[in-house]
Amino acid sequence: MIKDRLPQAYLEEMRDLLGEELDAYLESFDSAGNAGIRLNSGKLTGERWEELAPFPTEPVPWAKNGRYCSPEAQPAKDPYYYAGLYYIQEPSAMAPAALLPVEPGDRVLDLCAAPGGKSTELGAGLRGKGMLFSNDISSSRAKGLLKNLELFGIPGICVCSEKPERLAELLPGFFHKVLVDAPCSGEGMFRKDESMVKDWLRRGPSYYGPIQREIVRAAADLLAPGGIMVYSTCTFSAYEDEEVILELLRERPDLEPDPIEPFPGAVKGRGLEGSLRLFPHRLRGEGHFVARLRKKGGREEACRWEKGRRKNRLPVLEPDSERLLSELLDGAAASVSRLSGEAEKGEGWKDRLAEKGGALYLLPEGFPEGLSLRFLRTGLLLGEVKKGRLEPSQPLAMVLSPESLRETGSSLNVLSLKREDGRVIRYLKGETIALEEEEGDIRGWVLICVDDFPLGWGKGNGRTVKNKYYPGWRWL
Length: 476
What we know:
By secondary structure, the protein is an alpha+beta fold. It folds into 3 domains: 2-301, 3-Layer(aba) Sandwich (Rossmann fold); 312-370 and 380-411, no CATH class; 412-476, Archaeosine Trna-guanine Transglycosylase, Chain: A, domain 4. 29% of the residues lie in helices and 25% in strands. It has helices spanning 8-18, 22-27, 46-52, 79-82, 95-98, 117-125, 139-151, 164-170, 195-202, 205-222, 242-251, 319-340, 394-399, 402-407, 422-428, and strands spanning 35-39, 57-60, 63-69, 86-88, 107-110, 131-135, 157-160, 175-181, 223-233, 255-257, 267-268, 275-278, 288-295, 353-356, 359-362, 375-378, 380-386, 389-392, 413-417, 433-434, 442-450, 453-462, 464-467. A hairpin with a 2-residue loop joins strand 21 and strand 22 (453-462). Helix 10 (205-222) crosses helix 11 (242-251).
């Protein structure tokens, strides 16, 4: 049993932390872990999910969009996963993003963002307004992060791979909300992944503590006056949890704790107001630590990016592609309008268009142009321009919906298939789609959907639709 192989130093640490509860904690290793999904609030409501759910789920108490599910449900092998309706996430890991109050129009930073579980929730909370800046120091991990954000259909994203101190140097006081889910010794993962015990013996709290302290200092510099920061780990070590934040508060008198109301099963952190601990013997999750801070001052003091916009010569499009671009922008604007409740027009977005290497992008609101950073993505990739012709992108498809296209009177074709239709899986595998008699002829670009949720593009040629689903996302 894994609990019989836990390091003695770790057991002593947990005895100091839990006291009489240590035995109950160790007994939790005998029980199975908890699988979970987090719904994409930018795509559907909880009520709509209950109507559609292809497998049984139960609410996660501390995350409005969180759901427990059985490991046998195989949520990664369902068309709804490919439609971006949910993210597969361990339930206690849902707490940090749930406790950061993101509002439409915020500039939000997820500083250690890969693989994207928390970023996708923060981005959905923006409701299509503002900007989500997701960073991970590992460029390879940042690629997976980018995919998850684009799968969720979040338009105003920037994804980069930089050291936190580099960001703090260039964007001090810029972000209204900051999340730091710090790299840690992973004590909360011991039950789920026995290999984490070996990693702990090789790189324990003493290794990660100094790294965490440097990261939160940079995060404090990046946070705007009046802004809120959440710090979290999936470990139990006080040296990596409360002590990191207590040290930061001593160094930065402009920061103060922002108390979190405990929810059932959670306990307050030791000696740190505004922090919570989640233990697997107290609730249905592997365990987490969360602390929330506020920077003194008013939101109006947030730093603004003052540098002038670079001159950007956009590609010349053929008339048909020019019309296509206008319809796509109108459709995306209608999608954002439905989410935010504010009227948006695609025509008004044209001053946010940018071109690079033949790719056309819609930059986020307030994007700080001219930054010398290692970006993987700046805004919503609209498509590739080849000899004046626009080929719409996979990320753009995920932002649109049949409803938004209908609202704008778009002439774009839509093919919405039922989840049970075998053509859905064939499409996700990259195969050509044959049309049924009642579906008629389709020519030109077509948005392929499952139950009115977008999956990607095809190109109609009469009675068949050529597959344009992005190869890197295909069903395996």
